[in-house]
User: Fold these one by one.
Assistant:
Number 1:
Amino acid sequence: MTARITIVGSLNMDLVIRSPHIPQPGETIIGSDFQTIPGGKGANQAVAAARLGGQVNMVGRVGEDTFADALLDNLKSSGVDTGFVRRDSNSPTGVALIVVDDAGENVIVVASGANMQVTETDVAAAEQAISSSDVLLLQLEVPLRVVTRAAQIARANGVSVILNPAPARKLPSELLQLVDVLVPNESETELLTGIEISSQAEYANAARLLLRTGVNSLVITLGRRGSLLASSSNDLESIAAFKIKPVDTTAAGDAFLGGLAVTIGEGGSLQEAVRMGNAAGALAAMRFGAQTSLPSRSEVLQLIDGEKPESIIGRDT
Ligand code: ADP
């Protein structure tokens, strides 16, 4: 069964420069390799899900500039339906300025532009697409009231709501109660719970706290350490990452979300979905850039098939 997925979220053009080190305030450095790479968490997750076999609708806003043309072309060439992406005549397309140093560390500043102009009316226009989806996939790079409205439509129509609470911020219970699967990374988990995490016990406490907010299930992504899975009926379960040599972890989280959403939309279990997410995240970390690094379904299945199932689940890395 093909997973039907709607994403309400951001589209950004990433302006990326390689630099020997991250500059200090006031410092000028000669860098190299300037690239413009399609990004934005919403669009990244849309492309990730489409490359992994999902039938994907994107809801969002871009400006009327050339970055918008490039972003829309890129989404379409990955098979994403862009019929619900509006062009805003008053705001520029979202842009992220990114500096990546030789150690793979990065600093990022985002000018949200048209992303912050997405309205509840834009969401209402896509109501039919949302309500006929298997999964609604959300992040926090568009206004919170828009995210909440989309989740309300999904919940009212029995559509699974997956929320990636990034960039990190505190969230009202009005939104959390509408979420089926909450997918924070480590720092987002700390911000959402106020718990500074340094041990497995603290993960369990954080998970208990988040499950009490009304989300049905929780998946915490832990970079090269894989992911933790918790739902109301289960204990915390660790699903190990694939062993790879990372080149650039930009969009690893977005690839993970794409894999998770597609598998849930296809009717797979949460464990299967996390394994698919881990494989997609690992492959994205092996390549440079955001949407340039997102893997195909066959690449992901190859990586999963290459591992013995028992070595994927519960492996301690
Ligand atoms: P984010 O990019 O949102 O901070 P993470 O860094 O937790 O998210 O990465 C998301 C997922 O991608 C991880 O759960 C893991 O499955 C995969 N991943 C990320 N970095 C690596 C890595 N170095 N090695 C293997 N898998 C990775």
Note: Residues 185, 221-224, 226-227, 241-242, 244, 246, 249, 252-253, 256, 278, 281-282, 285 surround adenosine-5'-diphosphate (CB under 6 Å).
Number 2:
Amino acid sequence: MENRAFIALGSNIGNRYDTIMSALKLLTENPKIKLVNYSSIYETDPIGYEEQDLFLNMVIEIQTVLSGIELLDFCLKTEFELGRKREIRWGPRSIDLDILTFNQENIETEKLTVPHPRMTERAFVMVPLVEINPDHHIPGVDKPLNVLLNELPDKEGVRIWKRKSGEGVFEPIES
Ligand code: GSY
């Protein structure tokens, strides 16, 4: 599987944990996608439109033979299967799957911009991303992710909710 991508997952409607696990299951059931790494799950204060419930957020690393656009289409299909309706722009959502990076590529199309244009400003993305890949460089940015995270304010809005390992171990796919 030649392509390497990071995807951010978020949910703040209904059973947030079950929805995130269902999204992981649907993604990894696709034979063209292999889960390589995953972060802990964080509970996070909403950014953008603040009058909404807390989110659960995490980040995964995958390998895939899909192109960036094919991966986007599969993410949108997965969101749709899990009941996502595209309503208020910054509003509540049952599941959100955002492609953060795709190899070291810059992709600029009507449907997809990669690296995700707001990823480095969002602690709910950067904290889980740095947990699994602190030294990663985003194309066109000379500082590694952990340095970018250190420079971010408002990290207290991102709190560990379920650890990847240690007490209360969480497995990405429950059988
Ligand atoms: O862009 C993802 C959806 N979203 C989130 C999110 O996932 N987490 C938090 N904490 N705030 C958010 N605002 C939006 S929009």
Note: The beta strands are 3-11, 33-38, 41-44, 55-64, 96-102, 107-108, 113-114, 158-162.
